[in-house]
Amino acid sequence: MRWAALLRGINLGKRQLKSAELKAVVESMGFTDVKTLLASGNVVFTADEKDAAALEKKLHDALAKETGLKSEIFVRSPQEMAAIVAANPFPEATSERPSFVVVTFHRAPVDKAAVASLAERHDGPERMHAVGRELYIDFPDGQGRSTLHPAMSKAKLDPVNTARNWNTVLKIRDAL
Questions:
Q1: Domain map of the chain by residue range?
Q2: Which of 15, 34, 54, 134 is an S-S bond match for 45, by CB 3.0 to 4.6 Å?
Q3: Predicted confidence (pLDDT) per residue in 130-148, tens digit
Q4: What global pTM score does this model have?
Q5: Quick one: fold of 2-76?
């Protein structure tokens, strides 16, 4: 079965991991057709494993053992990535400014009540929409100027997640 793994916080600050290192770790696990995407901790591969949670743990443990890097890992199937793209709540934004729309990937369904509460309290132009284990965020003015990130850290949203902009989401889907 084909899988995509998204690593949290790779190549930010001191958390450096070269794509070749990531590929080597995944190949050392016996997985095949391994391909890394960009330099932000994205890898697609084929594995006999059918349990995403088990893959996340195996990848986490192998990465820590081989590189010393401990990173949260989020695994999605081709069907899940296709569904994420199909559920896009901001088609006009992803068409006009795809790098300004971000999808955050979580392990459990995103708390819609917490998202609604955050949206009520936050006065910025950002829009948020939760679908299953993903949270879509439209940053019309870009992430750099946004005050949403500090507000999100105070909200009751699961802080264990990783984010990819829309361009990257499409590349991962297409690589599967």
A1: 2-76, 81-175
A2: 34
A3: 999 999 999 999 998 888 8
A4: 0.93
A5: Alpha-Beta Plaits (3.30.70)
